[in-house]
Amino acid sequence: MKDQIICRWVGKNQIYIDYHNNEWGKPIYDNRLLFEFLILDTFQAGLSWITILKKRDNFRKAFDNFNAEKIAAYDDAKFDSLMNDAGIIRNRLKIKAAIGNANSYLEIMKDEGGFSKYLWSFVGGKPIVNKWKTLGEVPVSTPESDAMSKDLKKRGFKFVGSTICYAFMQAAGLVNDHTVDCYLYEKYAKINR
Do the domain assignments include residue 3? Predict the structure, then answer.
């Protein structure tokens, strides 16, 4: 794997390399895992992604492995414990948003037949395969992420602007934004064929 070309944004940090090679851009259809990715992206707003990756295991422990039913039922004592947990991002608004987003997630699960089905509807049910040659060509938002953001907000989600939604779509494989020279580009492009 050392001789293979990977996306230029990865750099030399092993955490990024492992994340890129094993997760980023791999299509996800699991409801709970999609919820986890979206919540982590909401915590990333205004911060570097590596900060989230370094704290991801702590987030999983603090947020009951992103079990939405449990998160939706968090009381003031649990909120206070999260605010005092140095292992996560201790931002009052983001923690409140995660609890509210869990409630909105449960509504989507009930109303739309699943979070996965709902999210994948924004890309027609299969990954959008882009053909970026350079990192500079990759957009920060698209009409699809605009639509996702607008609808999530309408359903009560917070910290889900179009840029956050697009980063989520990239991470969860709703779009294939590996550059064409990356060894994973073709692997994930074949999923769409």
Answer: no
Domain containing residue 66: CATH number: 1.10.340.30
Average pLDDT, the chain: 95
Q: What is the structure's pLDDT at 156?
A: 97
The span from the CA of 135 to the CA of 180, in Å, is 10
This prediction's pTM? 0.94
13 in a structural domain: no
Q: Which domain holds residue 38?
A: 30-123+133-172
Domain count, the chain: 1
| Helices and strands: H and E segment counts in the chain | 10, 2
Is residue 36 within 8 Å of 67, Cβ to Cβ? no
Work out the burial of residue 173: count CB atoms within 10 Å of its CB; fewer than 13 is exposed, 13-18 middle, 19 or more buried.
buried
Residues 165-186 have pLDDT tens digits of: 999 999 999 999 999 999 999 9
**Quick one: tokens of 128?**
């959008």
